[in-house]
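Quarterly update, task 2.4: PMT-bound model.
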Amino acid sequence: MLKDKNIILGITGSIAAYKAAYIIRALVKKGAKVQVVITPAGKEFITPLTLSTLSRNPVISEFFSNRDGTWNSHVDLGLWSDAMLIAPATAATIGKMANGIADNMLITTYLSCKAPVFVAPAMDLDMFAHPTTQENLDRLRSFGNHIIEPSEGELASHLIGKGRMEEPDVIIQRLEDFFVGQQELSKKKVLITAGPTYEKIDPVRFIGNYSSGKMGFALAEVCAQKGAEVTLIAGPVSLSVHHPNIRRIDVESAEEMYQQAVKLFPETDAAILCAAVADYRPQEQAEEKIKREATGEIALHLVPNKDIAAALGKMKKKNQIVAGFALETQDAVAHAQEKLQRKNFDFIVLNTLTDEGAGFKHDTNKVTIIDKQGIIKDYPLKQKQTVALDIVNKLTELLV
Ligand code: PMT
C-alpha cells in the first residue's frame, strides 16, 4: 500500500529520533518516497547525513539553503505529499502545531499540508499526561490529524510510564491501514445530512436547535477519506469542508433539506442522516417582523415537517443502506429501537444528552450502534472524528 506514496517524515528533538532511521528504512523498502524535514533540535539527536543516506534525498531543515540560497518551498512539499508523519513529535512541536506557531520549516510544512497527518508523540510521562499536552493533542485530533498513541515503558528519564514513541513497525502498520481504508468506499456515493434546520417565524426569528454540524461534518470527512463521493446536505452551520470529494449543499429549513435528500437519494449507495431536523414549523411565516403585542402574548401554530429519514427508508432499494441517528433524553435504547424499525434504518446511532460530552456542540460524542439484527454495541466517549470512523466502519461492513 505504500508503494509510490510520497511521505514527509517530520523529525523533532527527542531521544526517539533514532527510531526515525528505522521508519525511513521500512518506508523506502516498501517503495515509498521519503522527504525528511527536521527541526534544529532534531539534528542534535540524529544527523542529516544518516537520514539523507537512508531516504536517498537531501534533508530539509531551513527555509533556504545557506550554501546556495535555494528556497525550500513548504507549500510545494505540502502539496507533493500523500501523507505527513511526525515521528517523534515532542510536546513543543505538538503545542506549535495546535496553535499554528510557524517558526520552523516543519511547522510551515504541516500548515501547508493537505494530506493526512500522523503524529507519534514522544516525551516523558508527566509531560504527556499534562493537561496542556492532552488539550493540544485533542485539538490536533479535532483538526482530523491521526495521533499514534505512545506506549508505556522505560523512558529517557528512566521513569516508567506512557510517553514512549510507538515502535516503527506499528507506525508503518498505521500508515498502511490508513491507505487500505482509503479505498474501502471507492466508487460509493454517500449522502449525509448534518446540522440543524431553521424554521422561519418572520424575517428575524426562527425555531432551531443546538446542532453545530460537527458530527455530520466528521462523517463526511471520514467517508471521503475512505474514497467515497460524498454529498453533504448541511443546515445552517459555521463549519467548512476540507476534502475535495465532498460536495456541500447548504439548506436552511427541513423542507429544503427534504427536497434535496429525496432528489439525490436514488443516485446514492448509502445515506447517513445525522441532521437535527425540526419536527415542526410555524404554519404561517410572517412577511414582516412580528411586533410585540399589547397583551404581551402571541401563539404560534406549529405543523409537522416531513420526516426525511422515514421517506428515504421507504424509498430504499435492496442495495442501498440507510443509517439514522437517535438523540434521546430518556428510555434511550427503547426509543432508538423504535426509530430503527419505524424509519426502516439498517442501523441507528444512539446518543444521549444525559451522557457528559455527548450530543450537541461538543467535540466528543458517546454512541451506541444498534443494527436491525438487534446487535447493540456501546462505544466509549471519543472525539467526533473517531466516532465517525466507528460509524463509517459499520457502514462499510454492510456496503462492501
Ligand atoms: O451537530 P452536532 O452539534 O455535532 O450534534 C450532533 C447531533 C446530536 C445532532 C447528532 O449526533 C444527532 O443525534 N443527530 C440526530 C438528531 C435528531 O434529530 O434525532 P431524532 O431522534 O429526533 O431523529 C431521528 C432520526 O430521524 C435522525 O436520523 C434525524 O436526522 C431524522 N429525522 C428527524 C426528523 C425529521 N423531520 N427528519 C429526519 O430525517
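Highlight for this quarter: The chain has a mean pLDDT of 94.
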